Amino acid sequence: MNRDTTFPRKLVVSQSYYEKSAINRGDIIYMEFSDSFIKEHFSITDQEQIQLYQRKVSRVIGLPGEVIHISKGQIYINNKKLDTFYGHQTFHNQPVASEEGLTMAKNIKVPENHVFVMPDEWWRGSVDSSGIGPIDHSYIKGKVVGYVTE
To answer: What region does 134 belong to: left with phi over 0, alpha with psi -120 to 50, or beta?
Structure first.
């Protein structure tokens, strides 16, 4: 059986969810990126590596108009602490010590038709808006609603 190894499990994605519903903080979204986006934002030119970045999932953290800042591994939205299980940097589901946590050099304001995303486990190398900036809605192809195990 050919299996997509980009994700450890088969994801269940509702591709029509956002046709009738707004994107919300906490949603896990499925994204597809063009080769040119990957080359520009990830500085990758090897075709095999590009294929690893074409399809990604991340959690929506920030919405249009919000200002995002990360200090010592803690996410802040409009200067308020994001007090959720995904609001603080983790490594293998354990909180990262604040002195070792990520700190962004500057705040990021999320533009219209964009979202700020982070993976739940920041070390996994998924799409991370703290590094590449907010993601345009055009790259969002659906909402992850579950997964299938074999």
So the answer is: beta
Q: List helix spans (H) across the chain.
A: 17-20, 35-42, 47-53, 129-132
- Amino acid of residue 137: H
State the number of CA atoms in the 13 A half-sphere of 48 facing the CB.
1
DSSP 15: T
The answer to whether the beta carbons of residues 86 and 118 sit under 8 Å apart is yes
pLDDT in tens, the chain (150 residues): 333 444 556 888 999 999 999 999 999 999 988 888 888 877 777 777 777 777 888 899 999 999 999 888 889 999 999 998 887 776 655 556 556 667 777 899 999 999 999 887 654 556 778 888 899 999 999 999 988 876
